Amino acid sequence: MKITFANPEIPKTGVVVVGILDGLKLGGSAKALDKQMSGGLVRAMKASRFRGSNGHSLALLVPGGTKLDRILLVGLGKPSSIDASAMQHLGGELYGALSTKGHATVQVLVDPIEKCKMHPDEMAAEIAFGARLRSYRFDKYRTKEKAEAKPSLKNLNIICKSSAKARAAFGPKNKVADGVFFTRDLVSEPANVLYPETLAKQARSLTKLGVKVEVLSEVQMRKLGMGALLGVGQGSVRESKMVIMQWNGKKGKGKKESPVAFVGKGVTFDTGGISIKPSGGMEDMKWDMGGSGVVIGLMKALAGRKANANVVGVVGLVENMPSGSAQRPGDIVTSMSGQTIEVLNTDAEGRLVLADALWYTKGRFKPKFMVDLATLTGAIIVSLGNEKAGLFSNDDKLSEQLREAGEAVGESVWRMPMGDSYDKMINCDVADMKNISGGRGAGSITAAQFLKRFVDKTPWAHLDIAGVTWSNKTTSIVPKGGSAFGVRLLDRLIADNYEK
């Protein structure tokens, strides 16, 4: 879908979207349309239950007095409630309402609104962003989809004052959407197509945007002592990889500043290994690489919009399979840190991958902070459902920055407790630690305590995204499927705190 911006003009033909304030208050464009319709627009609203409330809409087909095919009235709510998030959701909703109606072009009229904090150009940019986010589809493997089910909408033209400003404001947001789409693509691919080698190849494509990309082989990781990560992948015929991505975008005096770092779990398929999972729902384990997908998509977004920051992304890529060479329950592995781990459950494998990835990142780059992302535990879904990601951290400032960034973009996190009493639950009689506590309680917390042993004093946060990586329903700006939860959150974290 092509998104364009134009200066104010009431379209004569086609499809028009216009906003109505709460209480059926009309802006300039709506008044002009009502005049063309000899008051028909107001009569249609009064004859319906539409009142201009946020999230409500009313469609008028072949409106009398005009040559338009359709007018879609969308509720804006009260002027005080209009903000970036509301406009993004509006953009997503109007795309959802019109994308398959047979129209190739839709024109959205955005007027100035009294007592509203946003200017029309700002609203227009956010509407465009929301529409773009909603427009995502993963349909490359569909061969028999009915024509009427496919989107017909090819052009979205947003009409507002200062359209050049709107276009400029949308530019960086469009690059963030590119990163979101890249993550959604990666998470959606089946495991016979996406495995460590091919996922590493996808990451390499970021070199075209100026990202420096390195890929470590099993031989290189073995020399570095990454026994925890390598143990997870040893049952698969697919070779494990580690990908290191660097975006050095800081300008001026800060050019040599220490980077911020993001680390992702990349289990491209998780059978559970010898501790094999039940067959029901195992097909979903293609997206157990969701954390790595977010980190790769984030790097694409940052490089695409030329972020003024130094950022490192590290992803450990493995496939967890049962075989004659697979890791066994009871095996003891030595991590890159030198700490030993008794593997009591081979299905608690993500923390083993992250252990070596975190230690490597900490030692090589000495970052200001590290944030890791992982579809780590089913227990976090029991705690938080599919609404929020679990946040665990050793740093209050970083935790608050993540919370604020999440609230700003609609990707909420909830900080969970940590502490010595939980840490003791993974102490082990025969090694430095065990990879599960062995009990049923606090599964997400003990997993985070495990990771904390591999960060030393570096400010660190762990986001358990198991409940939010895949959406089973379509929402305003997230179509059903891979959500890319985390890309916009972390982009906002950097934009608000580390680009000044």
Short description:
The chain is of the alpha/beta class and 500 residues long. The chain contains 15 helices and 20 strands. Strands 8-9-11-10-14-18-15-16 form an eight-stranded mixed beta sheet, with helices on both faces. Strands 1, 2, 3, 4, 5, 6 and 7 form a seven-stranded mixed beta sheet that branches.
Task: Please describe what this structure looks like.
The protein is elongated. The protein is of the alpha/beta class. It has an eight-stranded mixed sheet with strand order 8-9-11-10-14-18-15-16, with helices on both faces. Strands 1, 2, 3, 4, 5, 6 and 7 form a seven-stranded mixed sheet that branches. It has a three-stranded mixed sheet with strand order 12-13-17, covered by helices on one side. It has helices at residues 28-36, 40-46, 84-98, 120-134, 163-188, 196-204, 218-224, 227-233, 290-304, 350-365, 379-384, 396-409, 420-423, 443-452, 487-497; strands spanning 2-6, 13-21, 25-26, 57-61, 67-77, 105-109, 155-159, 212-216, 241-248, 260-270, 310-320, 331-334, 340-343, 370-374, 389-393, 413-415, 433-434, 460-464, 470-471, 481-482. The model has no long low-confidence stretch (mean pLDDT 97). Helices cover 34% and strands 22% of the residues.
Low-confidence stretches: none
Radius of gyration: 25 Å
How many individual β-strands? 20
Helix content: 25-40%
Secondary structure elements and pairings:
Layout: E1 2-6, E2 13-21, E3 25-26, H1 28-36, H2 40-46, E4 57-61, E5 67-77, H3 84-98, E6 105-109, H4 120-134, E7 155-159, H5 163-188, H6 196-204, E8 212-216, H7 218-224, H8 227-233, E9 241-248, E10 260-270, H9 290-304, E11 310-320, E12 331-334, E13 340-343, H10 350-365, E14 370-374, H11 379-384, E15 389-393, H12 396-409, E16 413-415, H13 420-423, E17 433-434, H14 443-452, E18 460-464, E19 470-471, E20 481-482, H15 487-497
Parallel strand pairs: 1-7, 2-5, 2-6, 6-7, 10-11, 10-14, 13-17, 14-18, 15-16
Antiparallel strand pairs: 2-3, 4-5, 8-9, 9-11, 12-13, 15-18, 19-20
Helix pairs in contact: 3-4, 4-5, 5-9, 8-10, 9-15, 10-14, 12-15
